[in-house]
Design goal:
about 270 residues, Sortase, Chain: A, eight-stranded mixed β-barrel, 2 helices, elongated
Length: about 270
Amino acid sequence: MRVPVVQHSTRRWRARRRRALWTGGELLVTVGVVLMLLVVHQLWWTNREARHNAQRKVQALEREWGTPGAADPTAGAVPDPETGDSGSGGDDTGTGSGTGATKNSSSPARRQGTVNSAQSRPRWSQAYAILTIPRLSLRVPVAEGVSKQNVLNKGYVGHYKGTQQPGQAGNFALAGHRNTHGEPFRYINRLKRGDTVEVETKAAVYTYVVDKTLPQTSARDSGVIRSVPRSTVRPSYGYSAPGYYITLTTCTPEYTSKYRLAVWGKLRSMRLR
């Protein structure tokens, strides 16, 4: 019977192969653990931190503004963007044939102009308003700008530079994360026509009503945040006349940033704080 002879070089080669396989396995396990920790950080920790941060900022703004006063009994109508007529029929007084009537200083149009003229331009990344969406049980700060690091990643909603401020004629356009970092706009696709969206500032509370939704468009579709919002990619979505609009934008589908989802609303009423 012949006994196989195993050379020392063969033993060394097998030992090196075993070490290489063991080392490779350890590296794969380590990489897997690191990736799992990164996923946990992105999907859980960033949400926890951002939501806590946003909640503290909302509370700070509420303390700064104090308890809001009762709603103004003459508030409720929104002036026509071209004529300035509140449409309420009983708030205007004056003389003349009608076209030259003088507006009463308590009319919604006059009061809204006073509030808007008193608003100072927010500093970059400054939180200056609170957005409330009852259907989503959402209440988050609104900050100037859409910087990821200084605004969106804090769990805030960002105001697009160059668009109008709350209550002003034109388009008050906002952006928020769909996933991670508080994900305030994760479920805005669930908003339906007639849902309310409130924007609170130090001076007033503005109530918008959801009107239209653009389910998906290009990330470069700047038309959705124009003064008269209308998609340049899908022109059948949007508006053709001036008005008092709000736009909520976020990424779609979830966990991607390839496309944008937009929800539009119209200003229904305002009340002074």
